[in-house]
Amino acid sequence: MIDTTTPKGRILAAALDLAAERPWRDISLADIAEKAEIPLVDLKASFDSKAEMLVAFSGLVDDEMLRRAPRRAPDQSTRDALFEVIMSRFDALGPYRAALKSIAGSGFADIAHLRAVMNAQHWMLAAAGVNAEGPAGVARAAGLATVYASVFRTWLDDEDPGFARTMAALDRRLRRGESALNRMDEVCSGAQRLASAILPSIFGRRTKPRPQPEAPAPTPPPAA
């Protein structure tokens, strides 16, 4: 998944290797540059911070998840489709579990990293065939984020090769969230219908051109 033939790939691989060995908070940019065997100035050309590295890694995981996730069957429920997509993401994360445990234990996340997390929810919804656009999509992504965060912690500690605990927790959380998601869809649909009915009249009044005063009659030229 990480292309170590590129400088960015070598940096990401080095950062994750170090995270698997010791706490993420104790790793400096200089440590990562040394592990990647590149000058610190070359690391700076690719990333300004460890948080930026995590954002880039999250994007690679999104790509790998989309390659792995099966296409949703026409008769498949949303819950089952999301289950398969999220497990596909965990499969992609598998080789980096020790590093992710260290990173999760650091307790630090900046705005860019949080944005990447929400973007991941967007793509998981899309991969499951769920509309992830507009206000309803944002609400769905926020709801899925709570499910994913909870199950992610279970996955980090699940030593079963078949991830039975993870799958049981994911199924339980998705079932619990299914009714909430349906209610959310009803609320969002109602709000969209209301907005569709009201906004055209509001903006129609605002954009209606005002009548212009009639131009005065031209003054006749003086007699010669």
Please, could you describe this protein's structure?
The protein is mainly α. It has one domain (7-203): Orthogonal Bundle (Tetracycline Repressor, domain 2). 71% of the residues lie in helices and 0% in strands. The chain has nine helices and no strands. It has helices at residues 7-21, 29-36, 40-46, 50-68, 78-93, 97-106, 111-127, 134-157, 164-207. The chain is globular. It starts with 6 loop residues before the first helix and ends in a 17-residue tail after the last helix. Residues 218-224 have low confidence and may be disordered.
List keywords for this structure.
224 residues; mainly alpha; Tetracycline Repressor, domain 2; 9 helices
Concise synopsis of the structure shown:
The chain is mostly helical. It contains 9 helices and no strands.
Kindly report the name of the CATH homologous superfamily.
Tetracycline Repressor, domain 2
**Envelope shape:** globular
The first-to-last residue Cα distance is 90 Å
**What is the domain tally?**
1
Overall SS class: mainly alpha
Beta-strand residue fraction: under 5%
Major β-sheet, in short? none
Radius of gyration: 26 Å
Relative helix content: over 70%
CATH uppermost class: Mainly Alpha
Helical region count? 9
The CATH topology label is Tetracycline Repressor, domain 2
Unreliable stretches covering 5 or more consecutive residues = 218-224
Question: What's the rounded overall pLDDT mean?
Answer: 85
